[in-house]
Write the structure tokens for this entry.
Amino acid sequence: MESRIVASLDLTDEKSLIKIASLIGENVFAIKINWPTVLSLGKTIIGRLSKFSKVICDFKLADIPNTHRLIMEQIADQNPWAVIAHAFVGKDSLSELVSSGTRIISVVSMSNEGSNRHLNPRWKELMEDALESGVYGIVAPGNNYGLLRQISSRKGNMKVFSPGIGAQGGSYIESIENGSDYVIIGRTIYSDEDPLSKVLKINLDIENHKF
Amino acid sequence: MESRIVASLDLTDEKSLIKIASLIGENVFAIKINWPTVLSLGKTIIGRLSKFSKVICDFKLADIPNTHRLIMEQIADQNPWAVIAHAFVGKDSLSELVSSGTRIISVVSMSNEGSNRHLNPRWKELMEDALESGVYGIVAPGNNYGLLRQISSRKGNMKVFSPGIGAQGGSYIESIENGSDYVIIGRTIYSDEDPLSKVLKINLDIENHKF
């Protein structure tokens, strides 16, 4: 069975990052990195990691269409599997990203307290925009099962990627039960003494669970 | 008189970028760069440009507080003068950026059509959040004078930075008349055959105008 794990490797040290990616790459669905990693190691780290696994660039892009186009051009030769972008800046900005040909995953809700003021109350409209823009997937919280269920029930053909697992309180089993297609797991894996065993155990837990 | 120009140098070629920055650096208020430049040339381009002028990193950050902290840590040694971030993701995310010690400039409205659905209608609340988070400045359109006037009238002690000048229809004189503290000018400067003369002419136009 294909793994449901997206390993969030928030590391900025090259040796540690390459080591863990080479260890677990074949046994996770994808590896996710964010700006701190790219700032530290340069954009070529995307290409280097893509030899071990699909790479999701969690850039939370939120700019005008033209800048989005230029950003996608800059990373095109690094073989990113998907890029994460915000839906709140509008459908034109999302559509421009989709037209790059790389899969786009849209943020329609966030986990920080502050996002409850403007962003989270608008998740339904943000999902409509994401769906109409032709994005591949959406990000929905793996530690808020009520919201996750509501979001998943409207996902259409989009895949649901869920952070908030482990240190942030969510369970990967319950997250999948409530609609996640993929669970984003960070510290639980990369802070473990034996990251590969941890990954294999999670894969097995999910495989053996009756959903 | 101090220049009111923020030169938006959206270039990804190192030679051209350094050449124009060294030419105009002393005669503009600041130089603004965006992700395409940093992806192409690495984060050290921030430090290199800061030898010619203040550098504003137009990153449109929109992440959770912890990721914001890690991003600011990654660029701290590059001497950025300011970083642009979205107010939409919440006050906690903005406050975390402000606590880095680098000036933060908040986006409270955008120029793309798509941003009229979620972001632009909330500019008043976004300004409140920006003000309460202690940001240094806000971004307000230099090609929408009505909105610019309204935003400027509520800016408190924040500085107003205005894009949309030149190719996008705004005039630097009218933009300043309607409340901009600084005008962000891109192609008008870097596509000119003689960028320094262009900058000096704009500085003089502004200096000679009776506001």
In short: Residues 5-208 of chain A form a domain with the TIM Barrel fold (CATH 3.20.20.70). The first helix of chain A runs from residue 14 to 24. Chain A has a mean pLDDT of 96. The beta strands of chain A are 5-8, 30-34, 55-61, 82-86, 103-107, 137-139, 159-162, 182-185.
